[in-house]
């Protein structure tokens, strides 16, 4: 099939009235549901837009990753999974990306039907399960943050800032001079956003590149696993900041952490079937161990917004 291209952003344009008119027209099309109904599937729209974000991201890392955009893409993908309306969030992403110093180039791709054999279908099922669990871990984290209340969230934020200042030694922290503010959005740890971002970069390869290899499916899986582990570890860390005498929780977390260390690296036996190399018996216990511990922590915090 002939290579096609979609210019979500025109190449090498300046910010002028014509450019703004283009974006306004594009946003109107999204709001009316006119984009993607003919030749481009909704999933392709997501990966095309994310690939263009990757272009910007590679050049902007010197100044720091745009985590607000990663955050938007995270909830855009969830909306797709839940089959919710995505028009507003797509318009928001487009508006944010057009404000960058450099606009991304046109994406060329070959529209293709992805046919999988049993081996790759199994990989896809594992990946789908990991993504769902990743979002579930974020839900658990937000429940915990809601349960502990504003003052405890403030205490955690100040403690983490204090630890950073002690570690890097850049400045002495004046706790009395700190003003803590919150936005009315969900909480997602930065490490989890990074893992989501890296996982999506592999999926963009699968969906948009003609010569993409299905090894990218396999490579995406560990990122979502690490992402959910980062969320669980953050729940445990925050709980222990508020409950320094909770030795039982600390000891249980250390046991799971030790088991996690034992799974780092390549499996002892590598088979021809990649799906059998994704987890070891020890690794199978790590994420469920963190999850079970965090569920107990969240349950314990359910009926109080004071110190747990």
Automatic annotation (TrEMBL):
Source taxon at top rank: Bacteria
UniProt-recorded name of the protein: Uncharacterized protein
